[in-house]
Each structure stands twice: as structure tokens, then as C-alpha cells.
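Tutorial, part two.
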Amino acid sequence: MTDTHLHHEEHLESSDLLTDIVIGMSDGLTVPFALAAGLSGAVDSTSVIVLAGVAEIAAGSIAMGLGGFLAGKTEQDHYASELKREYWEVDHLPEKEEEEVRVFFEGLGLSPALQQEATKELIKDKDRWVDFMMKHELGLDKPDPKRAGRSAFNIGMSYIVGGLVPLSPYFFIDDSIKALEVSVVITLICLFIFGYFKSKLTGVNPLMGGLKVMMIGAAAAATAFAIAKLIEG
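Running the prediction step on this input gives:
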């Protein structure tokens, strides 16, 4: 029993981590890539692009991390609100709540006698009763209290890692167009790999998923570059 519980917790944590990485990495690869491409069409100095890119990565990672934190806190607040309401209903509307438990067991195909027996056994413990209603009536599991902070860190770091990929050539190449050419190759490869594995995890055709993510990134960068050239012209 304990091993199953631990496996379940590890599975949930792994799933949450992958979700955070996908959220942070997808924007981290795309937004700084488009910014660097746009600036490459407007300025010759890579030092300006590096400065702007680093500033964007810093701001973007904070914003994305904060978004992840607020999402986690919202989930906790929602659960706490529903938990409070469920305790109130158990205290003030016990007959209604008891009938909802019985109906659940009826839906499992239990006989009327077993429905009554299982219901009576369950509602002996109010905490167990409320927990049952939270899971099976509302479909809510108790959120990890550390999830918000962990999510903020994971998303923020993933954004930084993703953002440094398209920006890295500008650290070593002085000519902005040449740096952009290298950045395009590196970033499109990374976007394809990222999209491939993301699609594989979600059950989508990995080849098509990889191409889709790569094309979105390429379109964003090309648009930014074209706009910068138009404005410069």
C-alpha cells in the first residue's frame, strides 16, 4: 500500500515538473528568438542585442515564474474555499450529503443494502466524509502546499535555459546578421526537438508536433525581423 502511494506521488511530481518545463521552455525559446531576430534587422552591434536579450530573459523569467506561482496559489485558495463549503454542508445539510454518497455507490453498481452499509461506514468520520466529497463530487485533490513555489522556480529556470539558446551566438559573433544565421539554425533545431518530445508525451504525432513548434518559432522571428527592416527602411 505504501509503495503504491509513493509511486503515485512520484508520478504526480514528475508530471508537474514536465508541465512547468514545457510552459517555461516554449516561451523561452520563442520570445527571445523573435526579439533577437527583430533587433538583428535594425542594429549592427551584437552587444545591444545581447543587452536587450538578457534583460528580456530576466524580465520574462520573473513574469513567467510569477504566473506559475499565482496559478499554484489560486489552486490552493480554490481548494480551501471548496473544503470550507463542504464542511459547512456536511454540518448543516447532512441528509443531502449522505444521499449524494449513496448515489455515488449506486453508480458503482452496488446493491441497495451495500449502498446503505458503505454510506453509513463512510460518514462515521467527518474528515473522511468531506475528503470523499471533495474527490468524487467536486473532482478535487488536495494540492501540494509547496507546488506554487516549486512551479515558479521550474518555469522561471526553464525560460532562462530556453532563452539563452537563441541568444548564445550573439555572445561570440560580432556581426548581427551572421549571429542571427547561427541562432536560426540552433534555435529551429531546438524547437523541433522540444516540439517532438512534447508531442510524444501528449500523444500527438511527434514529427508533426515538432514541425509545428518549429514553424511557429520561425514565423515569429521572421515577422519580427521583417517589421524591424520595414521600420528601418
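The first helix runs from residue 2 to 40. In part three we will examine how such features are distributed along the chain.
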